[in-house]
Design brief:
By secondary structure, the protein is an alpha/beta fold. It has a 5-stranded parallel β-sheet with strand order 2-1-3-4-5, with helices on both faces. The longest helix is centred in the last third of the chain and has 16 residues. The model has no long low-confidence stretch (mean pLDDT 90).
């Protein structure tokens, strides 16, 4: 299939990460090419896999979403970052956007909203 949106997931909760991966793989045009549990592993995965979009948790061990987004913007500038969070406050969300994230969604939003955010984030890369 052409025009696949390549995705790397960064989430420390194994069950949530695996469930999201399965659900995203069922969506036409989306392909999860990598899945890691720590922000510090995100840069290496992105350098290796060259994704269009990184879907990343805000609260990660060792490196939070802001730090990981900054590192990704520096090392993998073509990958768009969409953050998923259960608990980021408005100040943390603002810091994410300032770091270069293109979106921040609640983890309990519907799959349609998450897929739409991924597709929206990938549009500049596909253009």
């Amino acid at each position: 299939m052409t025009d696949q949106i390549l995705i790397v997931l960064v989430e420390d909760n194994d069950v949530f990460r695996q469930a999201l991966e399965l659900l995203l793989e069922l969506q036409e045009g989306l392909e999860v090419v990598g899945s890691v549990a720590e922000g510090s592993a995100a840069v290496g995965a992105c350098k290796l896999l060259d994704p269009d979009v990184v879907v990343m948790d805000f609260r990660l061990p060792g490196m939070d979403g802001v730090e990981a987004t900054l590192a990704l913007q520096r090392e993998c500038p073509t990958a768009a970052v969409v953050c998923l969070t259960a608990s980021a406050n408005p100040r943390e969300r603002e810091a994410l956007m300032e770091a270069g994230a293109v979106g921040c969604l609640e983890k309990d939003e519907g799959l349609d909203a998450i897929v739409a955010a991924i597709r929206d984030a990938a549009r500049p890369a596909a253009a």
